[in-house]
Specification:
This protein is of the alpha/beta class. Helix content is about 45%, strand content about 15%. Bound molecules: manganese (II) ion (MN). The site of manganese (II) ion has 4 residues, from loops.
Amino acid sequence: MNKFGIFMNFWEKNWAADHAKYIRKAAAIGFDILEFQAQPLLDMTDKHLKSLKALADDCGIELTYSLGLDPAYDISSADESVRKGGIDYLQRIVRQIQKMDGVLLSGVSYAGWGSPNYIVNDKSAIVDRSVASMKEIIKTAEDCGVTYCVEAVNRFETCVINTAAEALAYVERIDSPNIGVLLDTYHMNIEEPSIADAIRLAGKRLTSFHTGENNRSAPGRGHLNWAEIFGTLKEIGYTGRIVSEPFPNMGGEVGRDIKVWHDLLEDNSEAALDAEAARLLAFEKEWMSK
Ligand code: MN
């Protein structure tokens, strides 16, 4: 059975927020998973981590984590000191996740989040440095029982992994049971000639899945072909996590980093957002149960 989740910043305009509030909210709406940025875990005491984990258990919520890796910790950097710092930083994040019995870290977790502002005629050296760094990080992930999931994202957010084919080539080079691929409908809509073929290509390496519309509104509000998307997930026998990641709100750190320059909903009050979350959950469950 697929588990359905939502990303906390559907509601919150800053990356760090009152996680406990959203654990309760996700559960009340009927989600199985709450996902949020992993960086704030580094600022939490062990007591805080354990209290969030206990609350999530009480609510029947699995916590999963995503990263838009701070370029200061870019593990694909040509600067060895930045790379080493990044490896250490990501290993520390993986250990924080283990403290909460977490099993999944995804996102732009293999390079600094953002695309180059210099000419790139050949990106192989950038990818090679990321792979070399990841081979060290993955040992920690294996020790911690965490699956490190690389997310193919669009050209404006990285040059390292833009397509399912690139994600697969990357994880094959890491060669670990603790590395997987995450595909996201919003990014695939920009980079893939066929979203269905990209999902088929990922096949059994597809470890988690993000949903969002062409403009990052919630599934069902834009022009993506959800019959094809969910139909292909069923065709490949995908029983994993489906985490919706809409960013409908202008403003805050999230608006700045995701480039949301207009509100995507007519009403973005908390009550309206709650109703929209419930609607998208019902929409996704209906498609997957067809
Ligand atoms: Mn995503």
